[in-house]
Amino acid sequence: MTGSTPGYVQTLALLPASAAIARRSVRTTLACWGLEDLTADAELIASELVTNAVQHARPIGATPEDPGRCRLTLERPSPGVVWLTVSDPSRRRPGHRVATADDESGRGLAVVGATAHRFMMQRARDGKAAWVELKADR
């Protein structure tokens, strides 16, 4: 985060319950910033990205006591704009797939891409990061 940019950072265990924690953190942060109109989209995106990290970024040998970690970051670079990032320790980029009508999973990143103003996956020093920009209708 940059010097004067408001932000929030939370480290989450790579466990299924972390998606709910991420949604609650997003909701609280956006309320503090007066950006409640972005809450539904931001909660959906955070939940999808954290769930993706939980499913695909757990380190080999992870245990219930040490499942690995991901990081949720929210930044507000300007009024009405939110950057949401979920970073995890895996260097493996998610594959693009087309889910069939009968598939129960595989749509998460497509939903994120359709919901966000901008979306990208990037390599990070210690893994990868999914970055999203959301804009309020103002």
Give an overview of the whole structure.
By secondary structure, the protein is an alpha+beta fold. It has one domain: 2-Layer Sandwich (Heat Shock Protein 90), CATH 3.30.565.10. It is 30% helix and 30% strand. It has three helices and five strands, in the order βααββαββ. A five-stranded antiparallel sheet has the order 1-2-3-5-4, with helices on one face. A hairpin with a 2-residue loop joins β4 (118-124) and β5 (127-135). α1 (18-32) runs antiparallel to α2 and α2 runs antiparallel to α3. It is globular.
* Mean of all residue-level pLDDT scores: 88
Radius of gyration in whole Å, from Cα? Answer: 15 Å
Beta-strand content? 25-35%
Tally of discrete structural domains? 1
- In total, the number of strands is 5
Question: Structural class given helices, strands, pairing?
Answer: alpha+beta
| Main beta-sheet annotation | 5 strands, antiparallel
Name the CATH class.
Answer: Alpha Beta
CATH architecture: 2-Layer Sandwich
Strand order of the largest sheet: 1-2-3-5-4
- Describe the oligomeric state of these chains in a short phrase: single chain
Principal-axis shape: globular
**Ends distance:** 24 Å
Give the count of helical stretches.
Answer: 3
- The low-pLDDT segments are none
CATH superfamily: Histidine kinase-like ATPase, C-terminal domain
